[in-house]
Amino acid sequence: MKVMFPGSFDPVHLGHIDIIRQAAELFDEVIVAVMHNPEKPAGMFSISERVEMIKASTSTIKGVSVHAAGGLAVDAAKKLGADCIVKSVRNVMDLDVEVQMAHTNAAVSGIQTVLLIPQPANSFISSRYVREIAHYGGNISTLVPNNVENAISKREK
User: Fold this and answer.
1) Which of 87, 93, 114, 136 is 20 to 30 A from 23 (CA-CA)?
2) pLDDT tens, position by position, 104-121
3) How is the chain split into domains, by residue range?
4) CB atoms within 10 A of CB 134
5) Is the pLDDT of residue 40 over 70?
6) Would you call 71 exposed, middle or buried from its count of C-beta atoms within 10 A (0-12, 13-18, 19+)?
7) What is the pLDDT of the chain when averaged over all its residues?
């Protein structure tokens, strides 16, 4: 079975990598779909930069591919041949949003969503906080893969 993990991934962090790894253990193929979220700011990295960082961060995980995608996640899933969507739930607030989105996606497309929970060590990480900590010169080494930390440090100089 082929699944798609959509997100803005700006930047990709260890929580994302955890979910990608879990999905790769459960499914035959994982498509990471880097998407623009119009509700989020323009971003620290371009979509093409995010795609490259995720490719580098997941190169040792079997069955993972990374693609840029636009529009609705369900349309991207169909276009990329995914059987279902994988999403991450870190807390109760995420659960509320993701359940509503999963029901909506199923209603309009028939595509089901599988919710995965990150390991406790990664359950608090968010891209927003990574960007904020990096902006103020804080240590993000325990939050992101090394290649992402290096890219952020170059960007923040």
Assistant:
1) 93
2) 999 999 999 999 999 999
3) 2-156
4) 21
5) no
6) exposed
7) 94
Cβ atoms within 10 A of the Cβ of 118, count?
20
Please give the structure tokens belonging to residue 112.
């089901």
Q: Residue 127 has which token pair? A: 């891209």
Q: Is the pLDDT assigned to residue 95 strictly greater than 70?
A: yes
Buried b (16+ CB within 10 A) or exposed e, 29-43: bbbbbbbeeeeeeeb
Question: 2-156 has which CATH code?
Answer: 3.40.50.620
Reported pTM: 0.94
Residues near 121 by beta carbon (within 8 Å), at least 6 away in sequence: 14
Average of per-residue pLDDT across 9-27: 98
